[in-house]
Structures are given as structure tokens and as C-alpha cells.
Structure to design on (759 residues):
């Protein structure tokens, strides 16, 4: 059998090509399954592709641009397939390439200045080189060490992102690369690669070159070997970096990216974590970052020149906005300077703090906070600066920000004049004429800083004395800030739910469940479908479900309006023991549990979760009351002539008792059927068949019925409705009684009338 199945299998298209006497590499590259066959290590295919001529042709597809009149598959498909063959990491193919110097020279000819460097082929070149660097590190690094001009060529093309990635891997500025191959990459530390990279700030005006240069140097600060890390953090390298950044003729992108490198030197994790990391540290008390003191000292030498760039009085450029105009705009370079100051303060260097005080840097930055009330990026960094000053171990920086900068007074003035002034020439930000002045956008940051001041004042006498000595602050705190904190306290928001929900003692999992916002319409539809298709019905009621499926869509056991009422009850319920979606109400209780639930709810100390649930308990208790009252009506209950008692010899003197089974008339009008499938109480049941129970059989069924000796469910309105309810206890009693005598409740119609009579 296996031989026959194997005979039916078709040969691979690649094998079909390999079976030919004369086939070309292009025919294989044009076959779609060649990559799968390479990954499956097809021996015939691997042996063919490992040949030097084939590897050379694959490299030419990658490094040589196709002629203009070439076919599309030569321009796009063949270079892609060639790159994928190398990245399949087949050892024989990579070995053929890396051990042949001519092939390696052909590969790196892509870096020649007179060569075209399109981004598509640069990406393929990068993938092949990185694959060799990872899988054939030793022989590959030996080739690069013997041809060190490759490093310089990579630096020249650093503006191409794919080439930049090769340079980062080659330098060892990778999280895993350098750890595994320390000896093979040791020689790079002795080169002047860092100087070549940083000089790209002065030799090129392209913003992409500046951005990739900064990204490469930032990667070196994070993962480079110790030798390169020591060089890049030295004062001489910092001075060389700032000499390019502060040159007047250079674009502002040089300054912005140079400061990014300085920030990465001070806090290497900041770049990798992004803004969330800096914000998270801002909210942590006393958090600082560690930096080389020599690196900080080298940066402080250029601090004065940086602060001169924060002066906006001489700028003339104008930027119209929706709220008015900016003259001048803050700009990316000024924003980057403020960010650099914020990171510099987190280092905790006392020399840096004193230098910032001497130059008046903190006061100038606070003024920018109020001059640009809608720049939230600026507000975030200034808030970080103020927090660092207030949490500093040095008392001089705290007194400087409280007294010399008068920060508290400026907060109060901003709160008093909380709208943007129109037509002012003093401020860079002004409102548009003819429009109502908008509210300033820094109130949230001011609120958070003020709350931090109060918190720190509880443990710092200097801050506390300063706040208490300012009467305007005291009045503003009592009348404005306290009320604002009460309104913005999200833990006290009811969000449309009863406030009693917040007074419960619940665990975290229950809090997450109870406070979830349910889609009422979706849950209502799910409940309707569940009850329509009988998910919650017993096996004895399957015929009722089958008959209900034949009705119209509007004639279902549980319509949408009823479902919405149930979900609303669940959401607004106050049941302490609610652990699932249906336990807030007794409507869905199983038949055998209905009595127990009713007794527990009626005798328990907790109130019912909703008025509907209370009605269910009341209805359950009335079942017994109705049953006991119907005992007296058993003799006068309506019966059909066919239901007359008959004497039947059973071998005993015990009297025979009868249970009359009634069938109701079917209705063809869907409107007469209630939403939950109950029959209108006004209908009169028609007689059907009778089932006899002996006295012994009745004693077996008696515990299921009631504590009384006899139970009579007559044709009254209430008992008729109860017998039709899916959750009514009466249906379980009848099912149990029928089971004793071999009856089948599945042969009944939707609505049943049941009467047990005693002789």
C-alpha cells in the first residue's frame, strides 16, 4: 500500500530541473520552491549552488544593478532569491563565499564610491554580510582586518540605514555579537573608527547622515566593548563632539543629534526605553543615573554656549497657530537643550548644579515654561528639572528654585491669569486677535508640581517654611488646589455606577470583573440565542426547543428587551456573592436548585440584588402555598370523562391514585405566546391521557413533590403559568412521576396542565 501511495507522488519542480542535462541557474532561481528546497537541504541542489561560479553569479545579482532594459525578474526577483539563498545559512554555500578572497572582494565592491548604491540592493548586501558575520565570524573578521579600508567605506555610506546596521555589527555595538567573539573583534578598538564617525557631522549637511551617525554612536555607548566605551566618554571626544555641534555654519540637526549622544552617555537606558523611561523615573523619588565624572566635566565646559541658544528675544521667524502665533517657535534644538539639562541634573553632580546656578540656566528654563504654555514636550522636561532640583541633596539648588527663581509666585500668577494674553509683544506666544483667549495648557503640570511641593514639604523644613510664609499660596491651596485634587481623584469617580460599589471589600480579580464595562446589546443577543437554541434547557425539554425553533424570530424564549433588563440588573446589582454572569438573579436557577436558592435567599442576612430577584423568591414560595390550597380543590377540579377512575387489579388492597395529564390547545398566533414561552393563562386546557400511580409508587415520588401527601396542580391561572416555566419546580415533579411509571414527557406540547388527584 505504501509503495502504491509513493508511486502517486509527483516529483519536485526543482528535481525536474536538476534531472535535465543542460539547465541554468536562472531556471532554478525562477522556480518558486527553490528556497524551500534549500531549507530542506536538498543535496543535489546544495551541491550545485555551492560551486564557485554559481556563488559568484548570486553575488552579482546582489551587488550589481540590473540594466534599464532588463526584465523585471532580473531587476527584482533574482536579487531577492539570491539573498534568500545566502540567508538560508547553508554551511557549504557560506563556506564557499567566505573562504574565497575573490568572491569576498566582489561582495564588498558594492562599497566603492563609484558604485551605485540603491536602497534595495543595499538591503540585500546588508543581510548577506550580517549572515556571514554571525555564522562565519572568524574567517570573516580576518578578511575585514586584512582589508581595514572596508570600515572607512562603511562610514562614508553611513547615511544608508542598511550600511549603518552593518557598521554597528562590525564595531561590536550589538548586545550579543561582542560577547561571543571578543578576540576576533579586538583589533577594532585600536582603529580611529570613532573619530571617523563623529567627523561626519562636519563633512555632510544631510539630516539622514546626522541621524544615523548619532544612532551609531548611541549604540556604541550602550553595547560597545570597553575600549571604545572609554574613548567615547573621554573629555577629548566630548570636546570634539561639541565643536561640531556649536559651529554656527552647521545645520541645527547637528546640534540636536550631538545632544542625543550626550544624553545617551549620561543615561544609556534612556534611548532604549524612550519617553516612558524618563517619565517613570520622574515619578520616582530620589532616582538618579550614574555617569562618568570626567564625561560630565567635559560637557560643562560647553554649557555656557548652549544656554545662549535659549535666548529667543532676537529671533524674528513667525509661526501661525490655531490659538494665535509663535514668534519665534521654540524649535527642536532648544527643546533638546532643555532635555539635556534635565538629564544632566539627574546625574546628581554637585558641580553641574553649581554651574547651572551660576549661568542662571534653571531660571531661564522656568521662564520658557511660562512663555510657551502649549508645548507639552517642554513642560514635561521642565517638570523633570524642577523635581530633580527639589529632590536634590544640595540645599543650594532648592533655595535657588524657591527664592531666586520665585517658582511658587509664578505658579500663583499663572493660576490667576490662566488665559493667554492677546496682542502682547513681550511673550513669544500670543493669542489671535478677535477670538476669545484660550486657557493655557500647562495647568496639569503645575498641579502635579504643586502637589509634589506639598509632599516634599512634609519632610523638608525649608520647603515647608517657604510655602507657609506665602499667604497667597495658602489661599490658593485651600480654595483651588484642594478642590481640584478632589475632582481629579479618579478613585472616587462613580462612572455611572452606584457609589455602593466602592464600599465593598473585594479582591483584585473581583474588582476587575465587577468594574468592567459590558456591551449590553451584545450580551442581550447572546442570551437570546442561548435560550432560543436550548443551551440552558434540560433533556426532557428538547422537544419544546425543537418546536420553538419553528416559530418566528420574535417568538423566542428570551427576547432582546428582557435580556437588556437582565444585564442591567447584573450591572447594577449589589450581590456580595456574585461570581458569574448569572448569579445576580434567580431567573436562571436550575430546577433542582430553585427550592434551595429560594430558602437561602429568604432566610439569609443579605438583601436580594434586585427587585426582580425578590419577585422570583416570592414566586418560588408561592408554589408551596398554591399547592397546599389546591388540595382542598382536588375534588372539584375540572376533569374530562375519559379521566374517570378505573378499578384495576394490582394484587393489593391499596387504592389506585391517578395523575391526569392534560394537553393544551396549540395556538397559531405568535402574539399569544409570551416572550418566555409561557401559554396565556386564559387558555383552557383540553383533556388528554391519564397515568395511574399505585400507592407504593406515589410514596416514592412524594419527596419530589412536596412534604404534603398530595399535590394538585389545577387549571388555575397561577399554576398553569408555573407549570410552563422552564425553572418551575412543578415540571421537575411531573418528570419524576412519569419516570416512575415509564412516561415520556417529550411527547407533550409546549404548554402542559398537570393534576395529581388522590382517591
Amino acid at each position: 500500500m505504501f509503495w502504491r501511495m509513493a508511486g502517486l507522488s509527483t516529483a519536485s519542480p526543482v528535481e525536474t530541473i536538476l534531472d535535465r542535462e543542460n539547465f541554468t541557474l536562472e531556471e532554478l532561481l525562477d522556480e518558486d520552491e527553490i528556497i524551500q528546497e534549500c531549507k530542506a537541504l536538498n543535496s543535489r541542489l546544495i551541491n550545485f549552488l555551492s560551486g564557485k561560479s554559481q556563488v559568484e553569479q548570486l553575488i552579482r545579482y546582489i551587488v550589481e544593478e540590473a540594466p534599464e532594459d532588463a526584465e523585471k525578474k532580473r531587476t527584482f526577483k533574482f536579487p531577492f532569491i539570491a539573498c534568500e539563498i545566502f540567508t538560508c545559512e547553508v554551511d557549504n554555500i557560506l563556506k564557499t563565499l567566505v573562504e574565497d578572497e575573490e568572491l569576498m572582494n566582489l561582495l564588498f565592491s558594492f562599497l566603492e564610491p563609484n558604485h551605485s548604491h540603491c536602497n534595495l540592493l543595499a538591503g540585500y548586501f546588508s543581510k548577506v554580510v550580517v549572515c556571514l558575520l554571525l555564522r562565519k565570524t572568524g574567517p570573516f573578521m580576518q578578511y575585514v582586518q586584512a582589508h581595514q579600508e572596508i570600515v572607512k567605506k562603511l562610514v562614508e555610506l553611513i547615511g544608508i540605514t542598511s550600511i549603518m546596521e552593518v557598521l554597528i555589527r562590525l564595531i561590536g555595538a550589538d548586545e550579543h555579537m561582542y560577547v561571543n567573539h571578543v578576540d576576533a573583534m579586538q583589533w577594532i578598538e585600536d582603529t580611529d573608527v570613532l573619530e571617523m564617525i563623529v567627523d561626519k557631522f562636519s563633512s555632510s549637511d544631510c539630516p539622514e547622515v546626522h541621524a544615523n551617525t548619532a544612532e551609531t554612536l548611541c549604540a556604541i555607548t550602550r553595547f560597545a566593548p570597553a575600549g571604545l566605551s572609554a574613548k567615547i566618554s573621554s573629555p577629548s571626544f566630548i570636546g570634539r563632539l561639541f565643536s561640531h555641534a556649536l559651529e554656527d555654519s552647521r545645520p541645527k540637526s547637528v546640534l540636536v543629534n550631538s545632544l542625543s549622544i550626550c544624553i545617551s552617555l549620561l543615561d544609556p537606558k534612556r534611548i532604549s526605553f524612550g519617553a516612558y523611561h524618563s517619565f517613570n523615573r520622574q515619578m520616582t523619588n530620589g532616582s538618579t543615573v550614574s555617569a562618568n565624572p570626567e564625561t560630565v566635566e567635559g560637557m560643562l565646559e560647553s554649557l555656557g554656549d548652549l544656554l545662549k541658544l535659549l535666548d529667543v528675544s532676537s529671533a524674528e521667524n513667525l509661526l501661525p497657530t490655531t490659538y494665535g502665533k509663535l514668534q519665534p517657535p521654540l524649535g527642536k534644538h532648544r527643546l533638546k537643550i532643555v532635555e539635556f539639562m534635565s538629564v544632566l541634573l539627574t546625574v546628581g553632580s554637585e558641580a553641574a548644579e553649581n554651574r547651572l546656578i551660576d549661568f542662571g540656566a534653571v531660571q531661564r528654563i522656568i521662564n520658557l515654561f511660562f512663555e510657551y504654555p502649549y508645548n507639552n514636550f517642554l513642560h514635561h522636561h521642565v517638570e523633570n528639572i524642577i523635581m530633580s532640583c527639589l529632590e536634590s541633596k544640595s540645599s543650594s539648588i532648592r533655595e535657588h528654585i524657591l527664592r531666586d527663581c520665585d517658582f511658587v509666585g509664578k505658579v500663583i500668577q499663572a493660576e490667576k491669569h490662566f488665559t493667554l494674553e492677546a496682542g502682547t509683544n513681550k511673550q513669544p506666544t500670543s493669542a489671535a486677535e478677535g477670538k476669545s483667549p484660550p486657557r493655557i495648557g500647562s495647568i496639569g503640570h503645575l498641579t502635579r508640581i504643586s502637589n509634589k511641593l506639598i509632599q516634599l514639604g512634609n519632610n523638608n523644613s525649608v520647603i515647608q517654611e517657604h510655602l507657609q510664609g506665602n499667604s497667597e499660596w495658602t489661599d490658593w491651596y485651600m480654595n483651588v488646589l484642594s478642590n481640584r485634587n478632589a475632582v481629579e481623584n479618579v478613585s472616587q469617580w462613580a462612572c455611572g455606577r452606584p457609589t455602593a460599589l466602592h464600599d465593598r471589600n473585594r479582591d483584585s480579580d473581583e474588582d476587575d470583573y465587577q468594574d468592567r464595562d459590558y456591551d449590553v446589546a451584545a450580551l442581550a443577543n447572546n442570551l437570546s440565542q442561548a435560550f432560543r437554541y436550548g443551551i440552558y434547557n434540560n433533556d426532557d425539554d428538547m422537544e419544546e426547543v425543537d418546536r420553538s425553533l419553528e416559530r418566528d424570530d420574535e417568538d423566542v424564549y428570551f427576547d432582546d428587551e428582557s435580556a437588556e433588563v437582565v444585564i442591567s440588573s447584573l450591572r447594577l446589582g449589589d450581590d456580595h456573592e456574585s461570581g458569574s454572569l448569572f448569579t445576580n438573579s434567580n431567573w436562571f436557577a436550575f430546577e433542582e436548585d430553585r427550592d434551595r436558592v429560594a430558602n437561602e435567599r429568604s432566610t439569609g442576612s443579605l438583601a436580594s440584588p434586585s427587585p426582580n430577584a425578590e419577585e422570583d423568591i416570592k414566586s418560588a414560595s408561592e408554589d408551596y402555598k398554591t399547592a397546599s390550597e389546591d388540595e382542598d380543590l382536588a375534588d372539584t377540579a375540572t376533569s374530562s370523562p375519559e379521566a374517570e377512575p378505573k378499578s384495576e387489579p394490582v394484587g393489593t388492597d391499596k387504592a389506585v391514585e391517578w395523575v391526569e395529564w392534560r394537553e393544551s390547545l396549540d395556538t397559531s398566533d405568535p402574539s399569544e405566546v409570551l416572550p418566555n414561552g409561557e401559554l396565556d393563562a386564559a387558555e383552557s386546557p383540553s383533556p388528554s391521557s391519564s397515568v395511574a400511580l399505585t400507592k407504593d409508587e406515589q410514596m416514592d415520588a412524594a419527596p419530589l413533590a412536596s412534604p404534603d401527601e398530595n399535590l394538585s396542580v389545577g387549571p388555575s391561572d397561577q399554576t398553569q403559568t408555573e407549570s410552563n416555566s422552564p425553572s418551575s419546580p412543578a415540571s421537575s415533579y411531573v418528570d419524576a412521576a412519569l419516570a416512575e411509571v415509564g412516561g415520556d414527557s417529550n411527547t407533550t406540547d409546549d404548554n402542559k396542565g398537570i393534576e395529581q388527584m388522590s382517591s
